[in-house]
Amino acid sequence: MKGKKLNTALISIVLISITINFFIPIIFNFKAFNSFENSEKINSVASNQGYINTDNYEIFWFIHVSDLHVTTTDSLESFNYLLNETFMEINPLLIVNTGDLVDSNLGSSLNVNEWLKYENILNNTGMNSSVYVDLIGNHDVSLNPNYEYFLNYSITGNTYNATQISFNKSFSFGDYAFIGLDTTKNTSYNFIEFGHFGFLNTKEMDWYEGELEKYKNCDRIFVFGHHPINRSNYLLFSDLTSSGKSLIELNEEYNVFCYFCGHSHDTFFQKSNGLLHVETKNFDNDEGVYRIVAVDNNQLSTSVEEVGVWPQGIITYPPREEYIVESLGNLNKIRVLAWDPLGLESVEWCVYNQFNSRITDWKPLFNTGINNPLWEGNWPSNLNDGNNYFIKVKITGASGTVIKELNFTFQKNLFVLYIAMIFIVSTFFSVSIIFSYYVIVREIKLEKNKWR
Question: How far is the C-alpha of 162 from the C-alpha of 147, rounded, in Å?
C-alpha cells in the first residue's frame, strides 16, 4: 500500500511539474499585445537626401541597378534619364551599380570607346563617389586581367584605385555598412568561359572578413557583387579565408543582412540562412530597369521600376512577408514612399482578402511633411487577426495612377490569446491540484479503514 501511495503522489507531482514547465515559459515569453493609435495626427518631419531621421520615422532608401552593357552604338537615353530626372525626383541616398558597365563587344574584347561613353555620361550628370558606386562585372574585365579600364573610367576604380569598396552611413537611429565585392576572376577570361561563374580568392576573402569585422556592430550590413551567391546556373565560388572560413560561414557569423547582385539578367529573390539575396534585372532590358530599396525600422522593402514611368512608389511598412528576418513587433502603421515629378495628388490604400475580394474602402494616407515623399496611415486593429491579406496602394499624380500591392499574414492580437492561455493554465493547475488532493485523501482513508 505504501508503494501505491508513493506512485499516486508521484503522478500528482509529475502533473503539476508538467504544467509549470510547459505553460509558465509560454506565458512569460509572450510579447506585449498590439496597441493601435486612434489619432490621425502626423508630425511634420524634415527630409534629407535619401533618408528621414526623426523620433517618429527611421527610413532611408537607395537605388540598385545592374548590367548596363554600354555599347558604342547606345544612345544611353535611359541611363541619362536615371541619373538626371529619376535621381533628382527620388533623391536616393545613393545609386549602386553592380557591374557589367560595358558590353566589351559581346565579350570578345574590351573597347575603350564604350568606357569613354560610360565615363562621359557620369561626368555630364554630375555623378561622384558620394552618391554613385559602381562595381566590376565579368564584361568589364574581359581579356583585361589588370582591370586598367575599370580603374581608369569607373567612379569607384578611378576614385579609390580599387575594385572592392566599403563604407558606412550613420543616422541617429542606427549605423549601416555597405560592402562592394569584386566577384570576377583575377585572370584573363577566354571567350568560352567568359566569367559565367563568380570567384573570390583568399586575398579577397581576407579583405571581406576584415571589413565585416570592422562593421560587425552595425545595425545592418549590405553586401553587393556582380554574381549571385547561390543560384542554380550562376554560382559564386570562393577560396577559404586564411582563417579557414567559407563565404557562407562569414555571412552567417557576421549576420550579413542582404546581398544585391545582377549578372543573371533576371529579377530574383531568395532567403537562405537569414541572408536576403536580391537580384535586379539588367538595366539595358526594355527602357531601363532599376530597383528602389527602402529600409524602414531595419526592415527591407524593394520595388522594381522602369525609367520614365511615373508616378513611382514603394510600400515600406509592412515589408513583404518573405523579406522579414525578425519579428515586426507591434504592427499598427502602413507607410509608403511616393514620387511624381509633376506632383502627387493623393495616396490611398485598401485591403483585399486571400480570395481577392476587397474588404475595406479606399482610405487616404497622409503626407508626413512638406516636400516629403513619405505617406502614412493607421492599420485597423480589427484586421490584425492572423489572416492573409493583400494590401493595395493607389498613387495618383499628374503623370497618372499606379497600383502597388503586397501580401502579408498579420499577427494575431496576442491580448486575447494571453487571457485565454491564463484561463487554460489556471484550469489545468486547479484540476491537477484537486485530482492530487482527492487521490491522496482517498488513499489515506482507505489506509485508515484497513487498520481499524
Answer: 9
∠126-70-233 over CA atoms, to 5°? 120
Please check whether residue 348 is in contact with residue 336, taking contact to mean a CB–CB distance below 8 angstroms: no
Which residue type sits at 210?
A: G
Question: Which three-class secondary structure state does DSSP give residue 201?
Answer: coil
Q: What angle do CA 103, 109, 112 make, to 5 degrees?
A: 70
Pick the CATH number of 321-409 from 2.60.120.200, 2.60.40.10, 1.10.3720.10, 3.10.20.30: 2.60.40.10
Average pLDDT over residues 143-159: 90
How far CA 2 is from CA of 7, 234, 274, 311, in Å, comes to 9, 72, 56, 83
Does CATH place domain 62-309 in 3.30.390.50?
no
Lowest mean pLDDT segment, chosen from 193-202, 278-287, 425-434: 425-434
Using 50, 70 and 90 to split pLDDT, how confident is the model at 133? very high
Inter-residue contact 282 to 137 (CB < 8 Å): no
Query: C-alpha grid cell for residue 308?
Result: 520614365
Helix axes 2-28, 414-450, angle to 10 degrees: 170
In angstroms, the CA 185 to CA 139 distance is 11
| pLDDT-wise least confident of 27-41, 85-99, 187-201, 236-250 | 27-41
pLDDT digits (tens, 9 = 90+) for 413-431: 444 444 445 555 555 555 5
Tally of CB atoms within 10 A around 273: 8
Q: Which three cell numbers stand for residue 114?
A: 564604350
